[in-house]
Amino acid sequence: MDAESPVQSASRKRKREEVEDSNEKAPRRKIRKLVPPRPFPTVPASVSATGPRSAHTEGKNYICITRRTELGAYLTRCKDVLIKDGYKSLHLSAMGAAIPHLMQLALSLPPILPFPQDEIHTEILTGTVEVQDEVIPDDEDEDISYRTRGKSTVSVTIKVGDGVDEPVAGPVRGSGRKNKLNHGASSGGQTNAKRKQGGQSGDKGSVQVTEQIVIREDELDDET
């Protein structure tokens, strides 16, 4: 191996010193990653965001995949959406480091579904979304700045058959009982109103009978 010449050694040493000087002169700053935008809302607009999750009948087939949830939990959830809830399509989305988790889920889900494999269709779309980061300087006098960077996204759509016969959002749990109570109350109110009307008509008839007084001439007393 050839020995390094003095010129090359001096050049390498000079570059190393320049890098160290630039690192010392560069201001220190902290990077805070902001929450990226979701591909679809957590709760549909037609559903109350403050209500219990069990009352949600729409949007169950739209799932964002993250690394915090295990694959088995996602498999059970997706299977229940297609079988128990009756959906014919499943929309999954992931970004960044969660993309391998989504790919594993998309490959593991079709074999455990009780549908013919030729009726299960999978569509995969790739894309990029812009996310923002906060740049916080150490100097309190300096303002916080923002930087934009791109992040990879993958969307997977799994359809059973034509994938269009999705269930329509039904009434919220408990509304049927409430409607029955309201119907009963209204029926009772109508019955009471009829009774009241009948009572008023009866009273009116009795008043008319008492007002129709017939006096015969032989019953009149002569005034003296």
Which blocks of ≥5 consecutive residues have pLDDT under 50? 167-187, 201-224
Mind telling me the C-alpha Rg?
39 Å
Q: Give the proportion of residues in helices.
A: 25-40%
**How confident is the prediction overall: mean pLDDT?**
74
What is the highest CATH level, the class of the domain at 26-160?
A: Alpha Beta
Number of helices: 4
What class, by secondary structure content?
A: alpha+beta
Major sheet strand order: 1-4-5-3-2
What sequence of helices (H) and strands (E) makes up the elements? HEEHEHEEH
Fourth-level CATH superfamily of the domain at 26-160: Alba-like domain
- Principal-axes shape call: elongated
Strand-residue proportion: 15-25%
Distance between the termini: 162 Å
Largest sheet: 5 strands, mixed
* The CATH topology of the domain at 26-160: Translation Initiation Factor IF3
What is the number of beta strands? 5
CATH architecture of the domain at 26-160: 2-Layer Sandwich
Question: How would you explain this protein's 3D organization?
Answer:
There is one protein chain. The chain has 224 residues and is of the alpha+beta class. It has a domain at 26-160: Translation Initiation Factor IF3 (2-Layer Sandwich), CATH 3.30.110.20. It has four helices and five strands, in the order H-E-E-H-E-H-E-E-H. The chain has helices spanning 6-25, 71-83, 99-108, 175-211; strands spanning 29-33, 62-64, 89-95, 120-137, 145-160. Strands 1-4-5-3-2 form a five-stranded mixed beta sheet. Strand 4 and strand 5 form a beta hairpin. The longest helix is centred in the last third of the chain and has 37 residues, at 175-211. The model is unreliable at 167-187 and 201-224 (pLDDT under 50).
